[in-house]
Amino acid sequence: MKEFYLLYQIKMLEKEIARAFFHDFNENTFPSTPTQMQIIAYILQHRKDTIYQRDLEKILNLRRATVSGVLKTMEKNHVLKRVVDEKDTRQKQIIMEPEMEKIFVLYLSKIEAMESQLIKNVTKEEQSIFIEIIHKMQQNLKNSNETKERKKKC
Predict the structure, then answer these.
(1) What predicted TM-score, i.e. pTM, was given to this entire model?
(2) DSSP letter assigned to residue 79
């Protein structure tokens, strides 16, 4: 049987990052998944913008149902709230709860430390090549999925 070495290594790296990053966080005071972290980071980086679910779907490359489920959990845990947009009542804005914003800012140093640990002994050139390869792999999968979708429609 063929070994799926590259896929295995990618999955192992993801597990190590999650284990190292989330092991000492209190579940009651901090989001427990990388997707929740990405959503919070995006909201904080775009504080001045109006953010909708579709923005998160696009930027995180996730399906509507996935983002909806994550947002529902985050809302239940008082991380964020969804409020009807004043300009378009069909839309709901996503707004960070002020207390969670304070907690997240406290953990930014943890994020920075993890990033530093992750790239320790990795040159800028190697990082650039790694990112380029990841983008190519993502594009390969995206193209493959688009081809499959087109075949389904035929």
Answers:
(1) 0.64
(2) S
